[in-house]
Design goal:
single chain; about 50% strand; 6-stranded mixed β-sheet; about 5% helix; globular; about 280 residues
Length: about 280
């Protein structure tokens, strides 16, 4: 739907209300430049429940603002901004660009166990070189929620089960669609097959925006539940005919979800749209 996307990136000096003792947050003189993490790359956010011993999640981050001394990495089942619910995984020294890695064993040790199908939120707490601390608790949620800042103060780890094709059939709800063909809660038809390691979805174009709609076949790797979408015809967007699609993603039989990332639409050999994300849940 969104053939042209304009991304507005704002550059700002983060004003921090840190955890520094005896600071009067209403006194202008106590306001200083804060610090936050930016996401450079997502390496992996899934834990293989069938192979917990070797599973790990990781992201690559950099920082903005005041120099960072170290990071305290916490985890909680689900999500919570109540720090008493957070369990410390470890503390790591920080360099300007760093890979944060958390193993399934570390999460299990912190929480007591890992459950199949669960999503865990990992919270990064910055400690600056001058001793101040910043995390999702004392940062403006509006900043964290704005894609332009690419904040990485929190991330997730989701456990996945062995691939079960029979789960992927029927109506799945849209929980995310950056192409904006669908509203949250709209339904998409999903069918198993045609092959044993394939799933077919009838997503793009949505009936509201296109015609000549085709089922898109997802190739699933049962070993890690990753998905590859070979380029294939999906349908017509009004006068824009013969639009095709390719992409990558993953499926989770525990949570009955299909997560597609990096979707690219093509028309006549040219890119029609890119960077599209679609998440479906039964």
């Amino acid at each position: 739907m969104k053939k042209y996307t304009i991304i507005l990136i704002s550059v700002f000096m983060l004003i921090g209300f840190s955890c520094k003792k005896n600071a009067n947050i209403y006194d202008f003189e106590t306001l200083t430049i804060g610090s936050y993490l930016t996401l450079d790359k997502v390496n992996n956010t899934t834990i293989d429940y069938a192979n917990l011993a070797a599973s790990k999640v990781s992201i690559q981050v950099s920082s903005k603002g005041s120099p960072v001394e170290k990071l305290a990495i916490y985890v909680v089942e689900g999500a919570s901004l109540d720090k008493t619910a957070w369990k410390l995984i470890k503390t790591v020294p920080f360099t300007q660009a760093i890979t944060l890695e958390v193993t399934a064993a570390e999460i299990s040790t912190a929480l007591g166990a890992i459950k199949p199908g669960n999503t865990y939120t990992i919270y990064n707490e910055i400690e600056t070189k001058d001793g101040r601390k910043f995390s999702s608790i004392n940062m403006d949620a509006d900043f964290e929620g704005q894609a332009g800042y690419q904040m990485a103060m929190s991330w997730t780890a989701t456990t996945t089960c062995p691939y079960d094709q029979s789960v992927f059939t029927g109506s799945f709800s849209v929980t995310k669609d950056t192409w904006q063909d669908y509203a949250i809660g709209d339904l998409v038809d999903v069918q198993p097959g045609p092959g044993a390691n394939q799933i077919t979805i009838f997503a793009y174009p949505s009936p509201a925006f296109g015609t000549n709609r085709k089922g898109v076949v997802l190739n699933v790797n049962p070993a890690d539940r990753s998905v590859v979408i070979p380029e294939q015809l999906v349908g017509d967007y009004g006068a824009d005919t013969d639009v095709s699609m390719r992409g990558t993603g993953s499926v989770n039989s525990c949570t009955k979800t299909i997560t597609l990332t990096g979707i690219v639409f093509m028309q006549g050999g040219a890119v029609y749209g890119s960077g599209v994300q679609l998440t479906l849940k039964k």
